[in-house]
Design goal:
The protein is mainly α and 234 residues long. The protein has 10 helices and no strands. It is globular and about 65 Å long.
Length: 234
């Protein structure tokens, strides 16, 4: 009990004193996660909206595959990206392995299907409600997708925030492609795993507290946006 108490007190001291190591790890974590979610949002929202308003042979199969990719194991994504970026891989000449860029790539691949699948369902629901109205105005295809993206913007922001929470909590893929290098690719989740095995519980716990607070803040923001949209637009 004393060791647990000491670890908790030490964690609070690190947070309150704005420890340089702690801030560096948090900063890199946010940099990687926000960059990945920004790219994944562009890819996911475009793909999801186009599938929602389009009708083509094999559409049901595409949707089924898209939904299935939401559950891809992060370590498998990490392995695939590692193979692509390793010296023997097709992108090995770029020297991206064990860099923050590699971590962003892995997270984009992991998060894009989640954003695409959820946004597809949201936009398709809106498409059912507004299809006749948009058709009467001559709005079809890409134009319809763009209109529905704007109309569903609050729900889509909530989906994007869910993706950000998922990215912040990711450990498997970023551990494989980033290598958990101190000062280079060490983020909150990988640092927690390492510091726990090293026995540096105050640092591990301080990072855990910050990570939980970040994820909690993201979820509160997402819920607030949802409530705001419901009050304003019904």
């Amino acid at each position: 009990m004393n060791s647990l108490t000491d670890a908790f007190v030490g964690a609070l001291q690190l947070i309150l004193n704005a420890d340089a190591t702690l801030l560096s790890i948090i900063g890199l974590s946010l940099q990687v996660s926000v960059s990945a979610v920004a790219l994944a949002s562009v890819l996911g929202l475009v793909l999801g909206s186009l599938i929602a308003v389009s009708r083509f042979p094999g559409r049901s199969l595409v949707i089924a595959i898209l939904n299935a990719t939401m559950g891809l194991p992060p370590v498998v994504i990490g392995l695939l990206v590692y193979m692509l970026l390793s010296r023997a891989g097709p992108l090995g000449s770029y020297g991206l392995l064990f860099t923050p860029t590699a971590m962003v790539i892995a997270q984009v691949i992991l998060i894009s299907p989640i954003i695409a699948a959820l946004s597809r369902q949201t936009i398709e629901d809106a498409w059912r409600d507004y299809r006749e109205q948009l058709a009467s105005l001559g709005v079809r295809g890409v134009s319809a997708a763009r209109t529905l993206l704007w109309d569903s913007r609050f729900s889509l922001v909530t989906i994007t925030l869910a993706g950000l929470g998922r990215a912040c909590a990711e450990v498997g893929a970023v551990m494989i492609v980033g290598g958990n290098i101190d000062g280079v690719t060490r983020v909150m989740t990988t640092a927690i795993a390492l510091e726990t095995t090293k026995g540096d519980l105050p640092l591990a716990m301080s990072l855990g507290i910050v990570l939980v607070l970040i994820v909690l803040a993201i979820n509160i923001l997402a819920q607030s946006l949802k409530s705001f949209a419901e009050r304003r637009y019904g």
